[in-house]
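Continuing the series of single-chain predictions for the mutant panel. This is the parent chain; the variants come on the following pages.
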Amino acid sequence: MTEIVLDVRDLHTHFFPRRGVLKAVDGVSFSLRQGEILGLVGESGCGKSLTALSIMRLLPRGGARTVQGEVWLNGENLLTKTPREMRRIRGRAISMILQDPQTSLNPVFTIGEQLREAIGGRGDEVMRTAIAALRRVDIAAPEQRMSQYPHQMSGGMKQRVVGAIAMSGHPGVLIADEPTTALDVTIQLQYLKLLQRLRRETQMAILFITHDFGVVARMCDRVAVMYAGRIVECGAVRDVFDNPSHPYTQALIASVPKMTGPIGRLHTIEGQPPSLADLPAGCRFAPRCPLVEQRCREAYPDSFVTGPDHTADCWRLTPA
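Parent structure:
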């Protein structure tokens, strides 16, 4: 079996407003193997980005706080590291591409200055390394781009620069937080192919965060479906698409437009996700689930094995 490079265990990250507690990430567990792309998918507000920021130890001060869990990277628990130790780990062992290049790049510094800062050091060798990093992500005329500012580049080009910065330290694990959201369809495809090529060349593991099942089908080896702070289903992409076991996964896949067959109304999921300040006692999806039973409302379901490396949290999967 391929080596596990990132292992997240029972991660809890909460917000603490003046009244109550908001359980944004509430018991998330998953593993990421070397050279694998794992898709983390779910609708907006389910906790995907906060999970990534918790792993990177980049939570905003005075906001969210990780209160429980472990994040093992190459045999070390990141949640026990000091801020100084984390600064040495970020960008080298693990790195992250944020979803909006407009806010990821500093508008008053050139591309070259921002790349050199990520690489560290000065001189001709750092310059050559920075140019090589831009060339690696298929940026044309990288020598000229080094002196340009972010506003002089297109959205797709800026996203490639962000990727070059994230991968300049040759990390073993890359977290890509919806990196194609701000790109048009043609540029999206080019960027996805770029990430796949870099994965093949470096055996880098990628946690790919998205809300788009189409991107998951094209990009990922495995997929974890997240809802209201919990991962409700996880398995190989083909298994989850062919045999979705959780009602939420079934509803998400049913809502994707079909390219063949008769034209009809798109499937919709009734209702709204629960408030993080008032989560149901049982299954988080129970208030919206068309297959809900009484036991679903009373206790959160166990995680049941539905196939090789495929699990889902649903009481209807209880063995007879």
